[in-house]
Amino acid sequence: MREMRAVGVLLKIKSPEAKELLETLAQGSPDAILTHEAQAAVKRMT
C-alpha cells in the first residue's frame, strides 16, 4: 500500500528526478503490481 502511495506522490511531484525513479520502478518484475502502477504513472507524466 505504501508503494502505491509513493507512486502517486512521485506523479504529483512531476520533477525529472521523480520521473527517473518511476522509470526505474517501471522496469521491475512484470508480475508486480508496483511495476504496472509505475508504468502507468510514467505514461501519465509524458
Write a brief structural summary.
With 46 residues, this protein is an all-alpha fold.
Oligomer state of the chains in this structure:
single chain
Average pLDDT for all residues: 96
* Low-confidence region ranges: none
Count of all domains: 1
Report the biggest beta sheet as strand number plus sense, adding barrel if it closes: none
Tell me the helix content.
Answer: over 70%
Structural class computed from helices and strand pairing? mainly alpha
Range of strand content: under 5%
Count up the helices.
3
Order of helices and strands: HHH
Q: How many beta-strand elements? A: 0
Radius of gyration: 9 Å
Shape designation: globular
The N- and C-terminal alpha carbons lie at a distance of 24 Å
Structural commentary:
With about 45 residues, the chain is an all-alpha fold. The chain has one domain (about 1-45). It contains three helices and no strands. Helix 1 runs antiparallel to helix 2 (about 15-25) and helix 2 packs antiparallel against helix 3 (about 35-45). The longest helix has 13 residues, at about 35-45. The radius of gyration is 9 Å and the shape is globular.
List the helices and strands and how they pair.
Elements: H1 2-13, H2 16-25, H3 33-45
Keywords:
76% helix; 46 residues; mainly alpha; globular; 3 helices
